[in-house]
Amino acid sequence: MRAVGPLVCVVDDDKSIRESLPDLLNEFGYSVCTFSSAQEFLQSAALDRTAVLILDIAMPGMTGLELQTELKHRGNLVPVIFITANRDKAIHSQVAAQGATACLLKPFSDTDLLEALNSAVGIR
What is the mean pLDDT of residues 73-100? Predict the structure, then answer.
C-alpha cells in the first residue's frame, strides 16, 4: 500500500539512494517520487506538488545547491533537506546560509531523517 501523505521528492544521482529511501519515506507516511537529476525534477509534474525536497549536494550537471537557487528564482520555496557524503564544514555552512531545513551526512539514521522531515513540514 502506498502512502498518501505529503509528497517528498528525492533527487540523487545515486541509484541506491533512489531505491532505498522510498520504502522508508512510505513507512513515515509520505508519498515519494525519485529523480536522478535536477533537470529531470524540474521537468516533472511533481514540481508544483512537492512538500519537501531531499537533494544530494553533488550531482553531475546542476548541483543540489544550484537546484535550490533555481527554485527560489522561480518563487518555489519548498523546504529542502540536503544529503551528502561531503564532510567539508564550509559546504554545510553554505547549505545553512541558503535556508536548508537540514543537511544530513551519508549514511544518516532513520531518526535523523524523520526529524528533518518533521521540521520541514512543521511537525514538532
Answer: 89
Q: How far apart are CA 99 and CA 69, in angstroms?
A: 10
7-120: CATH architecture: 3-Layer(aba) Sandwich (3.40)
What does the pLDDT read at residue 47?
95
> How far apart are alpha carbons 52 and 49 in whole angstroms?
9
Whether omega for the bond prior to residue 22 falls within 30 degrees of 0, making it cis, is no
- Residue 96 confidence (pLDDT): 84
> Which amino acid belongs to residue 72?
K
- Give the start-end residues of each E strand in 1-124: 7-11, 31-35, 50-56, 80-84, 102-105
